[in-house]
Specification:
alpha+beta, single chain, about 50% helix, 2 domains, Cathepsin B, Chain A, 12 helices
């Protein structure tokens, strides 16, 4: 058996930030999960539907691995990414890092992991791996999935080799903290304004505040869109609240990030953004509950109400991001 020593196997709420936390804590950089999410400019929104999909998808964050790339660039971490079409080379890439005494991040399809109780195909899942033996791999996943867990080497190989939406070619990655790096406090404003600018000016109508408004118009049609509303709608609601989002489609995480920032920077725009995202988080939880109720009852009025809340959410989040986008024009001081 080969295991990396002194692993802090804290599982948290979201897969990518859970893995990032493991890799960075092993090098002495301990940031909260909301801070990792926020410094990675992780918040977004997408309404995704196509003819080949059984049901629309509501996403609340940037695409898989973009958060990691953003965080590395912002804190000047050395990010080394390896991808390959060869399962043998893929295993060598991972084993070499662990044998050298370091954990490694993996992007894979959660469907093939033994410990997942709910078998859903998701090729953007991220875990930290810290050990292996002849039969199993030892991973850190979210609290919801068990934190420190194990899966068979065969299942891990299938998960890494999977192809489809959001998958990567046996992607593994490491992060190295440099001897000198900017403090997280110094990078808060660029992280927030970059996230706000992308949210306010999306390239297509499915993204950002425009995507939320679009969802407000289309969600009321979901009873007709779903082949099996009793299954599809409650599952959509479950993914919004408990599918590794931290609750409220990642808005709880971003709310908590802004609260942490407000303790470090004295900014009226930041306080406004935090207040509005606290409001938005509660509204997203309301939307999820209404969608679940519509699926269970078949009552279209629940979806009409959810659509109305979504239209309000588009406005609230736009106002929040407009305030946050102005952070760059301030000279914030140190908060009390």
């Amino acid at each position: 058996m080969t295991k990396v020593k002194d692993i802090d196997a804290r599982g948290t709420q979201h897969c990518e930030t859970s893995a990032l936390g493991v890799l960075l804590r092993h090098q002495g950089l301990d940031l909260s999960e909301p801070m990792l999410f926020g410094l990675g400019s992780g918040l977004s929104f997408v309404y995704w539907d196509s003819k080949g999909m059984d049901f629309p998808f509501l996403g609340g964050r940037v695409k898989p691995f973009e958060l990691t790339e953003n965080l590395a660039a912002r804190l000047r971490l050395e990010l080394v990414v390896r991808e390959t079409g060869s399962p043998r080379k893929a295993w060598e890439n991972v084993a070499a890092v662990i044998d050298a005494g370091h954990p490694v991040g993996l992007q894979l399809d959660s469907y093939h992991l033994d410990y997942f109780g709910s078998k859903v195909r998701f090729g953007g899942h991220v875990v930290a791996m810290y050990g292996y033996d002849d039969h199993d791999a030892y991973l850190v996943d979210t609290d919801q999935q068990g934190g420190a867990v194990s899966t068979s080497l065969a299942g891990l190989a299938e998960a890494r080799a999977a192809r489809g939406p959001m998958t990567a070619r046996h992607r593994s990655f490491t992060l190295t903290v440099p001897g000198s790096m900017p403090t997280p406090r110094e990078r808060i404003v660029p992280a927030i304004t970059a996230c706000a600018d992308a949210f306010l000016d999306p390239p297509i109508a499915n993204l950002g505040h425009r995507g939320i408004a679009k969802a407000g118009k289309l969600v009321p049609t979901w009873l007709q869109r779903a082949g099996d509303p009793l299954r599809a709608l409650p599952q959509a609601a479950l993914l919004m609240e408990r599918g590794g989002t931290g609750g409220a489609l990642f808005r709880n995480l971003y709310r908590d990030f802004l609260a942490e920032c407000a303790g470090l920077l004295d900014s009226g725009h930041l306080r406004t953004g935090h207040r509005l995202y606290a409001e938005a988080a509660a509204m997203w939880t309301e939307v999820a509950a209404l969608i679940a109720e519509a699926g269970e009852s078949g009552d279209a009025r629940c979806l009409e109400q959810a659509g109305a809340v979504l239209c309000d959410l588009s406005r609230v989040e736009r106002e929040a991001m407009l305030a946050l986008s102005r952070l760059g024009s301030e000279t914030p001081g140190t908060g009390a």
